[in-house]
Design brief:
- There is one protein chain.
- The protein is an alpha/beta fold.
- The protein contains eleven helices and eleven strands.
- The chain has a seven-stranded mixed beta sheet with strand order 3-2-1-4-5-10-11, with helices on both faces.
- The chain is elongated.
- The protein starts with a strand and ends with a helix.
Length: 320
């Protein structure tokens, strides 16, 4: 029987995490279960940074970006003895189940705690959309909106100056933000971990677009951690018809009020997390697959390949 549920946010923050905290809190309280907020991810478990959560504590956060509880990365949490201390702290606080909102690293921590006796449920909270076991993560849609708004603005100036805008977006080795942005903004090229990167090919393509197609401007969307975008922009200026300019969207992508879609997703997933814990289930993660809220063992999700986006890369190619 679950009497007190803890909730924490871990890893990189994502818009919609607050909506998930609110959902978990309200659904649990409405089921007669107490809720405790844990500050700063797993660090809060180690430092016993706990706060009782009431209905009103989660008022006015549904529309806020970031996370009310704070987030952190705690590399030491991989060690068994640190996890044991956290289990002791949870037991001392009377917390008998935990909802962990974060990415796949956070899921691994949730699995370790479940194996040590505290049932945990993982909710996918990251702008990267890089978590297996779900079609979409909480925060991705909002980050995509930010990317689209910004690239639309870049297009205005880029087309006025016969430029090629090279725009670096986040994604942490997952190309979804780049791919979706490229499709939504009508980019000329998308470069991501899935497409691979060949500098010569990029220059050749831009030469073709400038010389043969006589395009006035070009937008290239590129995932982070692939190349030095400033150096690429310089080469574009030197070797093609276009004047190259690089823009790194950076942490702007992590902020902002969550979209309606992220608020819905977070609210639905929070409900599922509490229902699973009330059924005595732990070590699972929640996902949305074909618009149905689902759950599966974290271990199974971590072993699954990421959902293929081949059809969307094909769509992009057919749209240029
Ligand atoms: P994300 O959850 O967004 O993937 P990280 O990979 O940084 O972000 O993980 C967040 C936190 O989860 C880490 O700082 C660490 O505390 C915990 N964590 C990551 N990997 C593991 C692991 N293998 N075992 C236990 N805890 C982990
Ligand atoms: O996982 C979210 C994310 O924003 C990634 O897209 C990015 O690679 C990373 O976190 C940046 O981390 P930090 O906030 O530590 O710079």
């Amino acid at each position: 029987m679950v009497r007190k549920i803890g909730v924490l946010t871990s890893g990189g923050d994502a818009p919609g995490m607050n909506a998930a905290i609110r959902s978990v809190t309200r659904i649990a309280l409405n089921n007669g279960v107490e809720v405790v907020g844990v500050y700063n991810g797993y660090r809060g478990l180690l430092e016993e940074s706990f706060v009782p959560m009431t209905r009103s504590d989660v008022s006015d956060i549904l529309d806020r970006g970031g996370t009310k509880l704070g987030s952190a990365r705690l590399p030491e949490f991989k060690k068994g003895e640190i996890q044991d201390t956290c289990i002791r702290n949870l037991n001392r606080a009377g917390i008998d189940a935990l909802v962990v909102i974060g990415g796949d690293g956070s899921y691994r921590g949730a699995l370790a705690l479940t194996q040590k006796g505290i049932n945990c449920i993982g909710l996918p909270g990251t702008i990267d959309n890089d978590i297996p076991g779900t079609d979409f993560t909480i925060g991705f849609d909002t980050a995509l909106r930010t990317c689209v708004e910004n690239v639309d603005k870049l297009r205005d100036t880029s087309s006025s100056h016969h430029r090629c805008s090279i725009v670096e977006v986040m994604g942490n080795r997952c190309g979804d933000l780049a791919l979706y942005t490229a499709i939504c903004c009508g980019a000329e090229m998308v470069i991501s971990p899935e497409t691979g990167y060949d500098e010569l090919e990029v220059i050749e393509r831009l030469r073709y677009l400038g010389d043969a197609v006589k395009k006035n401007h070009a937008i290239v969307i590129i995932s982070e951690k692939i190349c030095d975008v400033d150096a690429l922009a310089k080469k574009v200026s030197q070797q093609t018809e276009f004047s190259g300019r690089a823009t790194v969207l950076g942490h702007i992508q992590r902020g902002g009020s969550p979209t309606a879609s992220d608020r819905m997703l977070a609210s639905r997933m929070g409900e599922k997390a509490v229902d699973l814990l009330m059924e005595g289930i732990g070590g699972h993660c929640v996902g949305i697959i074909d618009n149905e809220i689902t759950s599966m063992p974290i271990q199974e999700a971590l072993e699954r390949p990421r959902k293929s986006r081949k059809h969307l890369y094909r769509l992009f190619d057919r749209l240029v």
